[in-house]
Design goal:
The protein is an alpha/beta fold. Helix content is 30%, strand content 30%. The structure holds 1-O-pyrophosphono-5-O-phosphono-alpha-D-ribofuranose.
């Protein structure tokens, strides 16, 4: 079913990103008209009649926007770096959900090895990172609780998001190396920017102005 060109569909990563995106979206006049945690509806209308929201798993956000199932998306830079195709632009750093993607393990000596078994949900980023350092990796793909892998001998180290560092500390692991800084980004489907130019640029302009007015604030 083709989507109306007089409306924008915004895909937002569920969980922490969605929670942190809500105040930002509210500040530009976009508030879901139903409680997303209670509603069984998959497409949520908002207070802006030209904008509807879909809340999906983070890893699905780039897919929806790449294929035009959504016109815009809000998702972490980690997910974007892991997603290799890209029929979308990434015009704005929304500066929400800041954290970092790091290598973590039980001891710093791990970084001196030339072969490592690494558990992660980011195989693309992990392979690229270690290949650039000449380290051979065997990647164990996991979907959550990465910190468990070194504890039970499933992997030598992990590549995962670190925010406060509490999860690593609680499990006796050290942050050994930062791969990159992460925050949530706005992405826009390339074709949507043409077919829904006025709507898309209006929203981008509002978000840009909001971010400029809060620049430098924590
Ligand atoms: C994330 C991440 C770490 C943790 C880091 O997990 O994967 O486990 O948060 O945060 P901290 O440094 O503040 O402790 P999340 O809770 O999102 O769940 P997940 O393991 O399912 O990804």
């Amino acid at each position: 079913m083709p989507r109306d060109t007089d409306r924008l569909t915004l895909a937002v990563a569920k969980g922490r990103i969605f929670k942190e995106a809500l105040p930002l979206l509210a500040a530009v006049g976009i508030v879901p008209t139903e409680d997303p945690e209670k509603s069984r509806k998959l497409i949520l209308p908002t207070s802006d009649p030209a904008i509807e929201m879909v809340i999906v798993r983070a890893t699905d956000v780039p897919t929806y926007v790449d294929y035009g199932g959504a016109d815009l998306g809000i998702v972490g830079r980690d997910t974007l770096l892991e997603y290799e195709a890209g029929g979308f632009y990434e015009p704005l750093d929304l500066r929400i959900s800041p954290c970092r993607l790091s290598v973590a393990g039980a001891t710093p000596e791990l970084l001196e090895r030339t072969r490592l078994r690494v558990a992660t949900k980011y195989p693309v980023i992990t392979r690229r990172h270690f290949a650039a350092k000449g380290v051979q990796t065997e990647i164990i793909k996991l979907y959550g609780s990465m910190e468990l892998a070194p504890l039970v001998g499933l992997a030598d180290c992990i590549v995962d998001l670190v925010d406060t560092g509490n999860t690593l500390r609680a499990n006796g692991l050290l942050e050994l190396e930062e791969i990159c800084k992460v925050s949530s980004r706005l992405i826009v489907n390339k074709a949507s920017l043409k077919t829904r130019y006025a709507l898309a640029t209006r929203l981008l302009g509002k978000l840009e102005a909001l971010l400029a007015s809060t620049a430098g604030r924590p």
